[in-house]
Specification:
Elements: E1 2-3, E2 11-19, H1 36-39, H2 48-62, E3 71-80, E4 97-98, H3 101-115, E5 122-128, E6 131-133, E7 138-141, E8 156-158, H4 159-165, E9 173-179, H5 186-191, H6 205-212, E10 223-225, H7 242-254, E11 256-259, E12 262-266, H8 267-281, E13 292-294, E14 303-306, E15 312-320, E16 329-334, E17 340-343, E18 351-356, E19 358-365, E20 374-381, E21 386-391, H9 397-405
Parallel strand pairs: 2-3, 2-5, 3-4, 5-9, 9-10, 15-21
Antiparallel strand pairs: 1-3, 6-7, 7-8, 10-13, 11-12, 12-14, 15-18, 16-17, 16-19, 19-20
Helix pairs in contact: 2-7, 7-8
Length: 407
Amino acid sequence: MYTIDGGRGSRIHALVVGVGAYPHCGSAVSEEASPWSLLHSVDEVLTCAPLSATHVARWLIEADWSKSDVKLGTVDVLLSSKFAVHWPKDLPHPVPEQAVYDNVRAAWRRWVASCDQAEDNIALLYFCGHGWGGDAQRYLLVEDLAEDIVDWKTRLIDFTRTRRSMRACKALTQCFFLDTCSDQPDELGDWACDLSAPDLIADAPQAARRTQERLDTRVHNPVFTPTPRGFPSNVDPGNVTPFADALVRTLDGLGADTAGASWVVRTTELRGRFADVLRWYWPTPPSGDALSGELPDSGRDTVLRRLSKAPKVPFRLDCHPGSARSHAKWELQCHQTSSTYSHGPGRTDKWDSETRASAYELTVRFDDGVHETLTQPGKIIYPPSHDETVEIDLLTPSSRRAGELGR
């Protein structure tokens, strides 16, 4: 576990797991083994998983939490790969533990114990690897699943049960980011009555029930997944997943909104903003990829992060008719700083860039004697993105003549 800020007060505690190797599944499962029909479809290698977990962990560790009401306290990372795990040298050492069941269970319990110290603590989980099930029941698969083929179910994580048990944890904000498939293999139904995985954490059903009886003690515990129930998540080998990249972008500022003079990322806006960021950067995602998950027990409005400055926002500006693009000189002048940003002329593409969230004056200038210059004084560019096509008018005959006389 890496301690980022061990000071007094409430803290964010994060558990990050990336499982990219399943050496006892797939072709390693004997056809004579009774769970073969279920385990043979689990691929051996997910190169994206340790990369994505490292990507999320790096952001958590390096992000600026100085203005946040709740600082980042700890990050626990577990990684598994078919190859050596290359934990970046500029991040805390030693190298993270291997994502086998015993290590994951111990880390999960450490994580819950840390979160259980105060109601204002925030629990964040990011898990990337194989998963089964959907809204009703969800399982997470770790590296040594099926190492002991006779007792393979003892290394299966019953996430649904564990999330339910975590209602007894004092931390009233718990966000679960499960970067997994939501596959529901046909064979899973055959085993449904027999998949009684052991407790990942200690069950406290009475305490969990008590939290549900009062609105002020109900946990805000949403689950986010990249796919709806029954779909795989398709990721190019060797790349960070779109889900992980969008999560980092969202928490880094594209999920933020104004709160007085500052920008904050809050739980009540997170799902919609996260989905918008995914759509912006991956407008045509692989089959099945669409932000999904489970709703929280409560609508608690928690500030996850307070930014030290306005976030950078991606924007895309175009004009109609498209034939005017090559003659257009675009300018954005920031109302707050008076800084000016420009694009063109001579460019035939859309203006696709990013800028600090603010109000701008937009000017589209033309010196071609055909199109009329456009000025819009109050252009708001706020997260998560801005996409607009402006209408360009043609010069009237009289204004053309006036322009010619002025030359």
